[in-house]
Amino acid sequence: MVRTLLLSILFLLGNTSFAFSQSTGLDERINDAFMPFAIWWENLILMEIPIFGHGIPLVLMILILGALFFTFYFGFVNIRHFPTAIQVVRGKYDDLEKSVPKIKPHVYEVDGDLVDTIKDEGHLGEVNHFQALATAVSGTVGLGNIAMVAVAISIGGPGATFWMILAGLLGMSSKFVECTLGVKYRDIDQNGNVYGGPMYYLSKGLKENGMARLGRFLAALFAILCVGASFGGGNAFQSNQAAAQIIERFGLTGEASGSIIGLIFALLAGIVIIGGIKRIAKVTEKVVPFMAILYVGAALFIIFSKIEWVDDAFAAIFREAFTPRATIAGGIIGVLIQGFRRAAFSNEAGAGSAAIAHSAVNTAFPASEGLVGLLEPFIDTVLICTMTAIVIILFNMDGVFVYGNVVDGHALLADGSRLGGVNITSLAFESSIPGSSYVLMLAVCLFAFSTILSWSYYGLQSWKYLFGRGKWTDLTYKIVFLLFTVLGAAITLDAVIKFSDAMILALVFPNMIGLLILFPKVKKEFGKYMALIQKGN
Question: pTM for this structure?
């Protein structure tokens, strides 16, 4: 299979690259063909409902109200049990696994058909808590933290940062619920291979509640949307912004530059995703800490080098969260929408995607991984997104660009030029640390690469749920996925943001319906796990 996949990728992508190099303006033609669909899809998913004279996307209302409910229902688990989550990742409670009685083998049912997924007594998962967290974090800590933060601030001003932080804190509770359910309802076959995520807790969990038809429908809908999201936000957007940075840093020219960079990314990703979740986990557990230290270290250096202005940056964040500038469309509601929308894209809390990676963890206690999962939005949004935001706000103290003055996803600079997404962050870094834009370029490539790896797994699991677990099923998905890596590098930022945003946010609809029905199951699992911890102490 490995040899076949590599030959297929090389053949298809090689022909694609040749076509790109021989066709004048092909990147533009691809974009022109893709843009109408991106606009239609964005308008559909971000359908607004009028509240106090302002239109608020329904999907954001579901995310916000759902996260608020889980935060209160579970007694502020995101705050009170944050230290417990750290201890679980450190392995403090690993000995509890030994107290678990042997699991009786049984056959699971998917869509009414018996499938060969017998839970073996000797298998509880494929990766440890840290590897599961690293894989999931690599899927969330991506270019959303660099590029989308820049987009949020350029459109919504400094105040968008406040709402991003709030969304991250609330999202921790949603992530706790979905990751617990992901482990509780996963399938494990005779060889220890894990199949989990919303597809399984929607179908099996709702069936337990007497809603089998609804469960099957929502599971299939989620799987279809997740495949699309893996092509979009988890893949095309990442290669798009990585290509933008490489082209900008090295001054590359030529109509097919983006496509060729996308081809290189596709080949590198293809080598890793062949090995499945274990290979992906081994790569991400090394790449994620390195890229986080690299990026966070550079951001902190800039922040401390301008420490006298940091209080002004925070003052702007809090002040403009409630009294935004006149140039910001929609006023406070517009700023709130930008903050929550970009946070949702970045940490994916409520979308359910990360539960697929967490489902592979080696544990007998679903709630233990739920606790691990709540760390993701904190790392992703509260820490990394906030650092990016402060760097950009400090950079723009002198008014390099006007907040809210945006065209096609690009901020208009004072000299009339345009900058979009990651290039705004790059300029902010370069202005503080000459030459740091190259460090940022490396970080961007690592962020993009690790996110592509994780989302390839999310999409593949959803693809398998829809089309079965065969060798050719895997091969088909991986080839299509890698073609989207090339496509993403060829289209414009505006098009890829519209498509990617909407694809990831679309996951919220089926997933949150399931969470709002199944949350009592989470409370039972959480009670059991905490009782064992207290008994051990």
Answer: 0.80
